[in-house]
Amino acid sequence: MQESETHILDDIVQRMNKVKRKDLLPWWIKAFSWIFLVFGALGILGIVCGILGYQITLSFFGLATKDPFSMDGIVIIGLLLFKAIVSYGLLWEQGWAVVAGIIDATLGILICIIMVFYSSYRLELVFLIPYLIKLLKIKSQWEQAVQIT
Q1: Structurally, how many domains does the chain consist of?
Q2: What domain range includes position 73?
């Protein structure tokens, strides 16, 4: 066997022995990721509605507004778009996705905790805390895992 063939076979054997990134995500993270991809598209639609002068109701993590270009509206749309980017990264197994997901979960938890003082208990915490814990657990594995191409 030639040296180049040996390297190719070694690479194939290493890939077969490694965990695939998509296998590290539980079904519920995959399901929520698809949902947030749709919400991200709706966030873009919210921007278009704002440009056209329409008022739409936006609500997320206890923030609510009818004006997409108010401070709350910009924050809500920004959060939806960020969640959509993180979801894309997780579903398409990007190397940066878990770190972005950890930032996303931490930011969501902080916003929910702050909003508890202004309104009421946020149900989102029930989902954000396990999401953060799972991402922290798989972070090192994700970085070593193989991206399916």
Answers
A1: 1
A2: 21-142
